[in-house]
Structures
1.
Amino acid sequence: MQERPSTPPEHPVAPPVSSAAGAVPGTGLDDPRALQILSTEHWSLLSSRSLIWNESFARAGLFLSLLSASVVALSLIGTESPDFLTFALILLPVTLFIGIATFFRLDDANREEVLWVGAMNRIRHAYVTMVPAVAERLVSGFTDDPMGVGRSYGLTGDVRYTILHFFVTMPGMIAVVDAVIGAVITGAALSKMRYDGMGVGAAAVIAGLVTAVLLGLRSQRAFNSFVSNTRPAFPEPPPGAADSPAAPFKRM
């Protein structure tokens, strides 16, 4: 599981440039319109991130509201009713479908979030190219590789995560709720088929655990594969090339 650092992580620092315009000649950043264009794009990316977060919270809230309504509806029917299990097996699968759909959308939103953060790191890279002195005052990363994106999230390593870290994310919490619903559906279905005893409870627990693990593995593999397959345009130079004249940046 990733941990937040107690001190801001180190960044590579750009060497001073001799261009009178404050940017490396030939990059296009010495054009006076470049800063305005980059600033506009930066705010556009911030707006995209805000929309993703708002959608994620709205979808999670919708799912939890539907789950609450389903529980209330089943409680009104009452366990004493002979049709209780029938209604449960109609209502809960629909709720589980909404929960799994919510999980997949939140999982996709996490990958979109990393894409936008990497794009903002590219813009910060341009800022540092224009004015190298600002590199020492940036806490967020300004390279678009996994390490640079991780810095923008306050992580000591890159942005990839483990299966354990998955369960503290929003998709992970939704996955746990989905697993519980799946376990209840399994128990209700077995009870409807006249099975009873400890076997029903064991089957329900197994179904819930399998659901949670499968969703977690899917999320972890999809996220880490997305990060690994993203080709950075402005990565941090490897340690062996940090002192090379061809390296655009040097480490502090």
2.
Amino acid sequence: MIIQAMHYKLNGVAPLPHLGVIRVEGDEAGKFLHGQLTQDFALLGLSDARLAGFCSAKGRMQASFVGLKRSPTEVLLICQRDILAPTLKRLSMFVMRAKAKLVDASADYALFGLAGDALDLVAPEASPAWTKRDVGAVSLVSLYPADGVRRALWLAPVTDAAPTGVDLSTADWCWSEVRSGIAMVSTPINEAFVPQMLNYESVGGVNFKKGCYPGQEVVARSQFRGTLKRRAYLAHADALMQAGDEVFQAEDDSQPCGVVAQAAASPLGGFDAIVSMQVSAFETNAVHLGGANGALLALAPPPYPLLADI
């Protein structure tokens, strides 16, 4: 089990240049997204946020978002900046007659991550993940914690003052994203996973009661027809880990048993990662990076319960 994070106090305000914003604006913005993403956007309220995936027809995730409503006709989608342009282009292909317009709004908004005491100053009372509160022009989205430390996304117009608090490096915030156990899709893992391979159904990223969206039948079959064979787990290694790296079981160098979904340098040394792998491989606790003779991974379950049924 990974124990390093217990000795590091995550705290402060971090700039998030690795994230971007897609604005979806129009009378049918929510309705349009409802038909494209894995979560319910038709009922998205002004005090809600959504974790959601955008899948191919084969159910593989091409992008993932934290979505929030800024006004009754404006939804913002926060995603990894490296996939923003191709994702915007592909989503725009499906607009057709819907009353919705999609644009890259990254230059219009400032994004910060708040953790620990810095978040307590703004929002003393804890809120469940994927809830939103507005303070003037600021939208504050509650996230899953990292090692028990509260975290939130701060989004505001670039003309607004930045949040106050001690400086937290972007690198340490990225490490907290890994420690939260929730991976966001980036270029190296484009179309690598169905949502359940990243545990999205267990952390509020999939709604099985909503209507159709691209890949919906595949996602539903993965959930309801037999046991899911791949899940996302936490891992630590002394060697460099990056999204897209393959992992192998000690006794089998012929094919990978999993893929690194997201990774970051640990402030205490080495690298932490979210690795999507075969459940059977996790249970052996003998998984190596890059090959059967590569660095041994120290594995741990995700920091939240996996839903056995929906």
